[in-house]
Amino acid sequence: MVNGYAPKTLAEALELRSKYDLVPYAGGTDLMVENRPNVSYLFLGKLEELKGISEDAEFVRIGAAVTYTEALSSPMVPQLMKEAISRIAAPAIRNAGTFGGNLGNGSAKADSVLIEFVTGAKLRLLSVRGERMVDVEKFYLGRKKLDLAADEIIAEILLPKAGIDDYYYKKVGGRNALAISRVSFAGILSVENGTITRFSAGFGAVADTVLRYRELEAMLIGKTVEQARAEKADVLNAYSEKLVLTRGRVSAEYRKTVCMNLLADFLTEKGI
Fold this sequence. Notes:
Layout lengths: L2 E3 L4 H10 L3 E3 L5 H4 L5 E4 L9 E3 L3 E5 L4 H5 L6 H7 L5 H6 L2 H6 L6 H9 L2 E6 L2 E6 H4 E3 L2 E2 L6 E8 L6 E6 L10 E10 L2 E10 L6 E2 L1 H4 L7 H6 L1 H11 L9 H18 L3
Parallel strand pairs: 1-3, 2-3
Antiparallel strand pairs: 4-5, 5-10, 6-7, 6-10, 8-9, 11-12, 12-13, 13-14
């Protein structure tokens, strides 16, 4: 028996969240199998205010209660995100699982979260006190640790629209379907007039949070493709020194090798 509340409006949900110790959820695909004792829940899955997908000049805005299946059918959701979420579990899970839940679970294995890191997404958080915007990289504080106050809910994910079409994505699991990531990797590399204008690379499922190193990305930004090729070995060495992975279902050494192979393949595919 699940104890909790099912508010009919967002305002009601925020009021309940401010008064009681409640765990928000929508799809519950991870949460419900945990079977936590003595927990009360706040069901957000039917709130229309959290179910929309829209866009403005800068962002695609995805409501926290939007399911993966709904996102896959939207022409506004970037192809990079679609490629990642299309590999989440099975259709039944994608029909129920939501973007807010993937974030709220606090796991570096979360498929959509990797894309949010690499694209530089922002999160819109709401409470009775008002609205707060936070970069997804700052939202993740560690494994199962989030910058989310006790009275806040995740309302919306803001994915930047510009410069994310030239991407690379790979997910390595124990099998092709229904697999939890052992290693996942996403990269974006944009070139304008022969000069690299954007380079971002993220590694999922290998540490307590998704790993992205902006200081290493800066090694290639502003360089010509020819200069980047000449410095490729230095970039790979810098990543190899920086990557410190935790042990998971497979050894840290194996996963680091996979990470480096994927990074090298990404750069090669993009002409570096």
